[in-house]
Specification:
With 269 residues, the chain is mainly alpha-helical. It has 10 helices and no strands. The protein is globular and about 60 Å long. It starts with a helix and ends with a helix.
């Protein structure tokens, strides 16, 4: 059943590619180059600008915004909530990196509509079952991994103080974290997969899976390896559904489960 479904999706994507190449090979190749270059620049900026917030302090200072730069420097370094503000900066850079350049390229260079890149909403309700099954399959592995020291050392990203409640900082962080996953799904399963299908057909999923897997370097190795499978599965489903929304919901659900498991082991629940 699964094999038949994948074959159907592959045939759908390959037929779309063949049709596009027959109609305008030069235009498809141009779009492919633009998408890959924009992806490379976006991922580079996202990686380097999210290391800390000092670069933003320097930018504000160079623009003459001395007071703002001092306030921001204090928030990132000496504030009692410096951890929170650094995570806010990280989340904002992630979202901007995944969204701003791709959207500008779609609008002003490719002259297409952003909703064609996986933002379809109508009719996606009938595709919820595969995503629910994926979450159910993932839960036992998450529970098992949550007992490792490496897992507990990394999650949750926001490290609660001994007597600190969830509100407001952890809840606000979770909201930003969720938005970051929506942006991530748009970039990988929307911009890359839907943008590259006209040139590569179903192989666009595997082109996307390489940088997506590299995004997980620095995390526990089982999670990085699982990202290879996860990227391929979510990319395949994105072609079938023409939507990123269930993939984003799955990603958010898994991330929330990881944080809650970690918080439970640390005695916060």
């Amino acid at each position: 059943m699964v094999r038949a479904a994948v074959r159907s999706i592959k045939a759908q994507a390959d037929a779309e590619s063949a049709s596009a190449l027959d109609a305008d090979r030069q235009g498809v190749d141009r779009a492919t180059v633009i998408i890959l270059l924009v992806a490379a620049v976006s991922l580079t900026l996202r990686a380097f600008l999210s290391r800390d917030g000092i670069w933003l302090v320097h930018v504000m200072r160079s623009l003459g915004l001395t007071r703002w730069s001092r306030d921001l420097d204090r928030a990132f370094t000496t504030s009692p909530h410096a951890q929170f503000w650094l995570l806010v900066e990280w989340a904002v850079v992630q979202v901007a990196g995944y969204v701003v350049l791709p959207v500008l390229a779609i609008w002003f260079v490719l002259h297409q509509k952003v909703r064609e890149y996986g933002l379809r909403v109508r009719g996606i309700g009938r595709y919820v079952v595969p995503y629910v099954l994926l979450f159910v399959v993932a839960v036992p592995f998450l529970v098992g991994a949550s007992y490792s020291l490496e897992f507990e050392a990394r999650y949750p990203f926001y490290d609660l103080g001994l007597r600190e409640g969830f509100w407001p900082y952890l809840w606000v962080w979770w909201g930003l974290y969720a938005v970051q996953f929506i942006a991530l799904e748009f970039f990988f399963r929307g911009f890359l997969v839907h943008g590259l299908v006209p040139r590569f057909g179903y192989m666009a999923v595997f082109v996307m899976a390489v940088p997506y897997n590299m995004l997980h370097y620095g995390k526990p190795m089982p999670e990085a390896l699982a990202a290879i499978v996860g990227g391929i599965v979510l990319g395949t489903l994105a072609i079938r559904t023409r939507s990123i929304w269930w993939g984003a919901a799955l990603h958010i659900s898994i991330a929330a489960s990881m944080d809650l498991l970690s918080l439970g082991h640390k005695g916060f629940l």
